Known about the structure:
This protein is mostly helical.
Amino acid sequence: MVLLSGGLDSTTVLAIARSEGFAVHTLTFRYGQRHSAEIDAAKRITRSAGVARHHLVEIDLTLFGGSALTADIPVPKDRDLAPSSRSAKEIPITYVPARNTIFLSYALALAEVVGATDIFIGVNALDYSGYPDCRPEYIEAFEQMANLATRAGVEGSTRLRIRTPLISLSKAEIILLGVSLGVDYSATTSCYDPGINGEACGRCDACQLRLKGFAGAGLKDPIEYALSSSTTKGSRRAGGSAR
Length: 243
């Protein structure tokens, strides 16, 4: 079971799962996110990946709001994401309350039905925006709960594993790994606030981290970025170049 958003990290995780010989079910959520272009990206990726089945689940987290991704709140742009900066240590408004817990719970239920023992998720504890549900201790706690709350765990027939192969990698290392596995990153999208035609803004946290990763890997990001002076400035600060 692979949680697939259509972004860079989850697409790399899908390639890892397939390289390990798994028959993969992918799980994508339409949850009211403003960056819904990622759903189309996930569909494109699964069509070419040869997965057993792509499951698209619809839930409405706009009922709760509380995030710039699910409410009428501006997406922060041009934040200083350096580890030493104060903003990098704060949980940003793009954090969606309990999102990974909700997603993993759905994945856990589906895993029981299809007989999957491994759930892959592309969380990362290095080059990320400070989300609390991307930390190793959170994943360890969820895995423990999963084996207490499922038939397979209670009967002892198998042990469910939450797999986080990217959790200790930098964004550049993730990209280089994906390239070695044949990932086509032009099919992915990362931007929290894309333009009307799907072009990335180049200035939100996700874009900055992505651009920094490609720059660190010595590669050019193959996706389209909005062409504006502010975007170019933000992209240069992130270590990349907008196109």
